[in-house]
Amino acid sequence: MMQQPISFYFDNRIVRVADQPITATVLAWLRGAVRRTGTKEGCAEGDCGACTVIVAELADEAGDAGGIRAGNLVLRPINACIRFLPTLHGKALLTIEDLAGLTDRALHPVQQAMVDCHGSQCGFCTPGFVMSLFATYLRHQAAQTTPDRAAIAHDLAGNLCRCTGYRPILDAAARMFALPPATLDTAPIEAALRAVAAETGAGLSYAAAGQAGPGARFYAPREVDALAAWYAERPEATLLAGATDIGLWVNKRFRDVGDLLYLGDVAALRCIEREGDVLRIGAGATLEAAWAALIGLEPALGEMALRFAGPPVRHAGTMGGNVANGSPIGDAAPVLMAMDARLVLQHGAQSREVPLDAFYLDYMRNDLAKGEFLRAILVPLPDPDTRMRAYKISKRFDCDISALSCGLAVTLEGETISRVRLAFGGMAATVRRARHAEAALHEAVWGEAAVRAAMAALDEDFTPLSDLRASRGYRRLVARNLLWRFWLETRSAAPLPAASVRVRTFAMAGAV
Amino acid sequence: MDINMGNGGIGVPVVRRDAMAKVLGVAQYAADFPHENTAYAALTLSKVARGRISRLDTAAAEAVAGVRMVLTHRSLNESLGDETFVMKGGHMQSSFLPLTSDEIHYAGQIVSLTIADTLEAAEEAARLVAIDYAREAASASMDDAGLTEEPADSGIDVGDAEAAFAAAEVKVDATYVTPAQHHNPIELYAASAAWQDGKLLINLPSQWVMGTRAGLAKVFGIPIEDVHVESPYVGGAFGAKASILPHVVLVAMAARRLGRPVKLVVPREAGFTVGSFRPAARSRVRLAATRQGKLTAVMHDEVGQSAVIDHVAFAGMEATSKMYASPNIRMRAATVATDVNSPGFMRAPAEAPSFFGFESAMDELAVALGIDPVELRIMNEPARDPVSGLPWSSRLLVECYRRGAALFGWSDRNPKPGSMVAADGTLIGYGCATATYPSAMAPSSARVRLSADGSCVVYCAAHDVGTGAYTVLGQVAADVLGVPDELVTVEMGHSRHPSGPVSGGSITTGSAGSAVHMAARAVRERLFATVAAGQDRSKMTLADRHVVLPDGSRRAISDIIGGLPGGVIEEHADWKPTDMDDKTMQQGLAGGMAFAGPVGGTHVSFSFGAQFAEVRIDPLLRTIRVARMVGVFACGRIINPRTARSNLMGGMIWGASSALLEESQIDRARGRFANTDLASYHFAANADVGEVVVEMLDEHDSVVNAIGTKAVGEVGIVGMPAAIANAVYHATGVRVRKTPILMEDLL
Ligand SMILES: Cc1cc2nc3c(=O)[nH]c(=O)nc-3n(C[C@@H](O)[C@@H](O)[C@H](O)COP(=O)(O)OP(=O)(O)OC[C@H]3O[C@@H](n4cnc5c(N)ncnc54)[C@H](O)[C@@H]3O)c2cc1C
Ligand code: FES
Ligand code: FES
Question: Which residues of A199-233 are buried (b: 16+ CB within 10 A; e: fewer)?
């Protein structure tokens, strides 16, 4: 395949980059190669949001609905520090420096509102917040809505500020919609992206000028078959999705990831669609899109989705990557397991299906063969008599890795439990179901006695560890209490409203 | 004091002067400065906590294409000027400069600095520096066995506290523990150094450009004028950037050897040991009272973690001893030396840990007495400083409590623990605590220039670390000169400006502000003298770019200044605190640490506040959420309510963060900090912050300094951890005597 430069829209034109290593981050390129230093580095691992930028792509190429629509573009806020530059090929990159140019005033309404509301103190987090707010602005501008305070807080969950205490920034987010509007003219961007798409053909094949051997090649096909064939031939390459795990391996653990096979440009892998009584989530669908689809099936998953990282990570990372990576504290697996999800795995032209609850073999080990990849996640549509909850317990409420998370579901016939799934993360070497506790509930009446028996049975299911996130004793107690809470919230008589435990509502009151 | 109110100057919530540059992304922070032909540096850090380097091999690192230099203890061999630790009168973050020997004193110590043409090459080479260590047993935690306490000061004694305690009717005796913490400003530490004709230009985020200049001049043995320190924007500091960090010296040295600019950005993880931190502390507090609630003895013994390389204590008993009226007071500080990097100042370094224990103990005493915690504090309000006997320059703590209690709805509180439960079973707790912070002052210079068009420039080598100094110092000048705020420009953060104080200890507004005030007054005097020699200047005023003469007639500034040679009036002022002698002042202006207060010759000056918190605790999961915080403060004159409020609010959120989240965990087996990234060093994200109410009382202090301001930047954090712990007790009946308070602590 012919080598091509990385071509993307930046600074009002198409730029072509041929000299960067395949794991060069967008942040390093911005700050180093082109000296666009408005975008800041605060952690280099997706935690602080100081590096937030917007990546836009053509909507008809994007394949999923998780982004923000403007014209025929889909825009996503992402963390530039863990995004590899070659993945920008065929897309547009917008940074803090672009905003003022979108208006004929000195400042974009987002920026003006930040000034008016004192949303910037030391200012180091500011470009990141402005870009996250810009995403909020575009989304609501397109939908002709205005967000409430809770929605704003959710949108800013991936940005940390050490100075302001956040209140002034939330105020700015409310104010920006009251200022004279600015619109993003997407036409020139779309035209440029179409031109790049036309010259790209079947996909980008890139190697940094002067580099060869393993670790030099980056391949981003646009068709599944091409991806499958390439991977089957070169199973030692690393399959790259949103890089929200892999970016950290490179930046923090200095791991040599070899050649990269990027699946993000395969539109077919990013589709989410209903097929009969199954929701099919393409492995490349973003976390943002996949969670939205799951919430469509089960609204009680809303809070779990919001507390899964922050928006820039959810707009970049994929649910397929989360499942494939298989961390014992990954948040998607317990939920999907409680929903009886099945995985479609593909190797070359062959594909097979495995139930998710049989996929994890041991700590960070799964059932994928060499050169095999996850193509889709199949989620059966829930039975109307199913009651489901997902809970996430972490030290910090937002933007924190779980100490423990779970997906809990019971299907009732009358008051008798005909199906039960209790899947836990953070309790063992892999995410897995609590079979003893499930047995205690199966065919029992959904009532206090059975729940108490299941709580006791959890001790047979798990011997959790103590670590920096929580002690064994806490995990044990809270796993039991989560079952109890599940019952309180889903019992037929006087269920506890879910909202009462959703503590984020406190954050919404403004500062006075 | 003469302050022209209503000129768009003092007391007006002017929008930040630097906001525009920041929202556009054009404000240049240290890592953003371009230098031609820059080489990039990367660090290698020690993996062991104590011992020696037994083998060092840099061949592989040097073989990486583009590598220019690998600086290690072997290649450093250069005699440097004898500059010391900032708390021993020098400017360095530590007495120990890495690479000056093969000794390892703490995990994460810099063991080499690799410089290359590109950052990637430097980083790759840094990983290839091969080192073996002769490792020795280390203790990074003050709780390790076998460590001894050493007294850190002679203590404070009033009356006979031990005897009074022994005889008391009601008493509390409890020990409270606070962990090590790291500042973690969002901006990473960074430095870029360039030499030209023997002169050093250094860009770094700094809270003390004058001190950094003086220190680097000494280290490199060059005249002070040959060092230029530039730090126009600082991405948060909180005390972390108030001294010269070791990498700064190494980067400057590498740049000199290479004859080429060198830039280093310190990764987040390395920042935990390249910089300083807030050390762990243990406070034993003993309080005794009569049944009616009058304190009879106040005792506070604090043991703080220090470093083997720098014994340093941050105990806050100067403040806790002054909180309440008691005839008997006894305070002692001690330290335990551990194998860690030198601890340093972190927002309210002494006060924040000490007040967690002290104000928790006050709550315990209130419980023991059955007296409302707010009333207990009001009952024990001292008319004068109970230690020195001097009057306060101002103290409105009781008013803060009364106003705060009203705002918070304290009267709704049922004092019985666990008695307030929401409809869904959520436990609700209310707590309060006192906050205070000393109002110290440092000498400062400033220059003010007024031009014919009414525009005004303020020059001062002070710093805006996010606090709002750019805005506030300009307002002081605008106020005196009667010019609209938009016409004022403020230049700070560069050592070429007139000397400014360290931006630490919440002193910038009072100190640099007083200097600006003085310089602006001098400009005004010249203006008056020019316009009407011989007239009574005390009857002249300045408003709206005009001089108003005693007879009421007006003369435009443009006419007066336009006629002067140069077309400007410019005046320099050197300001010093009332109680300071000239010699100390000169030392301070030359970049030395020179503080006056908070205990002066005639008065004692502190800011005060009353803080309230409401927590909500999930009965099943024990998760703790701070639903509301109220803080009412008395900090003297508020130059800009917008920036002041923001600092106080930010401080309160730091307090909440400290109460529930922040801890630098120590891996005791390996003697190092364990959670050295932002994924596991938690501080508050936006969802952790509930409703926050901040109010500032209108307080007039005619003694503290020329403009009547007291400390604002740090007081907000001080009472919050105890207020939250007290609220947790009220919600659950569980008294947690440590921070952070975790869900596990409530099992
Ligand atoms: C700041 C931050 C916060 C986070 N918070 C959370 C959280 O709250 N909860 C949580 O669960 N996770 C969290 N994560 C991790 C989460 O973002 C990732 O697990 C993510 O879902 C992985 O998807 P990705 O597309 O980024 O995968 P990548 O990083 O690109 O890849 C991850 C792994 O999966 C493999 N892979 C990817 N796609 C496939 C496929 N289709 N077939 C086979 N293998 C594949 C890759 O080869 C690699 O081994 C967080 C991450 C960050 C940086
Ligand atoms: S630099 Fe912190 S998220 Fe990217
Ligand atoms: S303004 Fe300083 S980190 Fe947000």
Answer: ebeebbbbbbeeeeeebbbbbbbbebebbbebbbe
- Tell me the residue range of the domain where A329 lies: 271-500
- Ligand 1, atom 43, lies closest to the CA of A373
CATH for B33-138+186-237+241-274 (3.40.190.80, 3.40.50.1360, 3.30.365.10, 1.10.620.20)? 3.30.365.10
Does B616 contact A503 at a Cβ distance shorter than 8 Å?
yes
Where do you find CATH 3.30.365.10 in chain B? 19-27+442-576, 33-138+186-237+241-274, 346-381+392-440+600-746
pTM of the model: 0.97
Same domain, A486 and A418: yes
- The correct answer on CATH 1.10.3720.10 for the domain covering B346-381+392-440+600-746 is no
- The answer to whether residues B714 and B651 touch, using CB atoms and an 8 Å cutoff, is yes
Give counts: helices (H), strands (E), chain A: 17, 21
HSE toward the beta carbon, residue B747, CA cutoff 13 A: 13
Which of B 208-237 lie inside 8 A of A, CB atoms?
233-237
Domain termination site, one of A178, A204, A236: A178
Q: Summarize the confidence of residues B91-112 as an average pLDDT.
A: 97
Of the three residues A125, A147, A178, the one that is the final residue of a domain is A178
Length of chain B equals 747
* Ligand number, closest to the Cα atom of B31: 2
What single letter denotes the amino acid at residue A401?
I
Nearest partner of B610 among B716, B740, B497, judged by Cα: B716
SS3 B175: strand
- Closest C-alpha residue for ligand 1 atom 19: A322
Q: What is the DSSP pairing of strand A373-380 with strand B199-203?
A: unpaired
Burial B328-363 (b: 16+ CB within 10 A, else e): bbbbbbbbbbbbbbbbbbbbbbbbbbbbbbbbbbbb
Structure tokens at B233: 């924007």
pLDDT tens for each residue of A36-62 = 999 999 999 999 999 999 999 999 877
The per-residue pLDDT for range A130-189, each reduced to its tens digit, is 999 999 999 999 999 999 999 999 999 999 999 999 999 999 999 999 999 999 999 999
Q: Is B714 a catalytic residue?
A: yes
Q: What is the pLDDT of residues A459-484, one digit of tens each?
A: 999 999 988 888 999 999 999 999 99
> What is the rounded distance in angstroms from the CA atom of residue B171 to the CA atom of residue A102?
66
Q: Judge if A56 and A69 occupy the same domain.
A: yes
Q: Tens digits of per-residue pLDDT, B652-662?
A: 999 999 999 99
CA proximity to A66, closest of A288, A284, A270: A288
- CA separation for the pair B37, B255 (Å, rounded): 11
Residues 235-254 in B contacting A (C-alpha not used; CB under 8 Å):
235-238
Here the ipTM equals 0.96
Please, what is the end-to-end C-alpha distance for chain B in angstroms? 57
Among B403, B401, B406, B410, CA closest to B433: B401
Q: What is the pLDDT of residues B531-573, one digit of tens each?
A: 877 788 888 998 888 999 988 899 999 999 998 988 999 999 9
**What fold does the segment set B19-27+442-576 form as a domain?**
Aldehyde Oxidoreductase; domain 4 (3.30.365)
**Mean pLDDT (whole number) for B500-519:** 95
